Amino acid sequence: MSAPDTGAEVGQTADAGATDGPPDQSRLRQLAEEQAALRRVATLVAGGARPAEVFTAVADELGRLIGAEATFVASVDLSSTDRPGSPSADPPGESGEPEGHIRVLGSYGRVSGEVPVGFRMRLQPGMVTTAALRTGRPARVNGDKLAKGPFGAIVGRLGLRAAVATPIVVGGRHWGVTVAATSREDFPAGTESRMADFMELAAMAIANAKAEQELRDLVDTQAALRRLAMLVAQGDTPEAVFAAATREALRHFGGGTARMIRYELDGTATLLANEGTTGPHVLVGKRWEGYPPTGLTATVLRTGRSARVDDYRDIPGGEPYLREGLRSAVAAPIHVNGRLWGAIAVGSGQGPLAPDAEQRMTQFTDLVATAVANAQNRAELIASRARIVAASDEARRRFERDLHDGAQQHLLALAFRLRFAVAPHESDDIHTEVTDVAAELADVIDELREISRGIHPAILSEAGLRAALRALARRSAIPVEMDVRIDGRLPEPVEVGAYYVVSEMVTNAAKYARASVVRVDAEASGDTLRVCVRDDGLGGADPVQGSGLVGLKDRIEALGGTFSLHSPPGGGTTVSCELPVTGAGPAASSHD
After folding, report:
1. What is the 3-state secondary structure (H, E, C) of 10-62?
2. At what angle do helices 238-253 and 191-233 cross, to 10 degrees?
3. How many other CB atoms are found less than 10 A from the CB of residue 12?
4. Mean pLDDT across the chain
5. The whole model's pTM is what?
């Protein structure tokens, strides 16, 4: 509502209806009505009502109390030099017009449609709200002064003819303002006093509701971070953590959408996750391109600080976001290990987001950064372990080739030469000795061949996991029952890891567990290879005591998989593992 600066009546009628005598019955009735209204608001607060409900109730009760057809309660976000307590603030009534915005938090009556909850307006000279905030006292305006003010069009549509604004003080500072309007010629004398008295007491309810909301926000934030921490602890991929953090941002801050963006070292950006609204420009996992040069992404990248867009209609290049259904958005930076890593943005189609959205999001993203850093560090550790395993496997392959192509072939050649080196006329003793030496050389060759297979079986590289497991079963000292459902080849690190699990468990069952049979199940389904090895031996296997089981577990986890052991004494041993697979084909049954 508006009032020209020269025509707003500030506090002039506040005591017009006061008398020096005792309160009359009308005033007592007014006091009773005020107390009843305040009790209803206090009951809402005590019942844990959300601030939006409390603000709407305050607007409703005030409207009914003073007979206004339209009321609203708004918070105020003043420029720093206009805030009470600011070092450069002038005394009330002597400073220039306050600068900033007000945001409607609750409305009642005719104004609800034109000035809904969330409506944000800039303070301008001539507004009754501006006059009230400038002086710290109620202000009144009516007639042509109201109709010709900055919001004259809205006033005309609603048929309003008079308005009164009263500042709301919470915690010693100007927290907001409430405005009441009527279609009558003017409000009765003393309306300012009634509004001021009511809002002074209602301010306590507002402060309590605000404190309750801050506590709920803190609890919600901590719960969200616990959920993210659980994902990291469970070993979920960074992509899963990014998506979860974005979902939490949307749930925590509301609005229509939430996005996580990562800034790359080459100056580009990648869209990591999106929840809520979408459009052709929203491609998760792809480059985030075509964003406005004065929009959120560019501003956060340039400044390293939070950014806000109150209306994409005012931003060059904001059309894609408008088509998506967004009106406004706020973004907060994510700093990881001292570097600007990315940003989380939330958007709304209902108008500007709350003035404190940046601050609340910064508190959230500071904690999200820890989860992101942990997920990223874990992914880097897994990648590093996988590189070490791959390098070890490559060394095994080279050693196996060197044994096969070098020492084994050399020994085989020597055995042949020795057999043919003895002349026919030599004595039987010499023939026998040479034959025995050749036989021992053949045994050495067989031992080297077995060692070579243990280091890295050639059949695994040549024919894949399915064939290698079948060969392993044929060589086993005890029966091995196999159910292998794998079609085609799997990634080499996956095949090698699974093979070593089966090989180690079959060897342990034969050598140490006194098992009579081993059962092997292997299945590649979707993006996962599942392997289970069971024996009916002594059980009691304990990795803590030192065994190849620790190495197997490390290898599987280095590939991003899981490894579990169940070995009760006398109950046999079962090892189960799952490995992520990329490019695995559909499963086909094979019973060996």
Report:
1. ECCCCCCCCCCCCCCHHHHHHHHHHHHHHHHHHHHHHCCCCHHHHHHHHHHHH
2. 170
3. 13
4. 78
5. 0.49
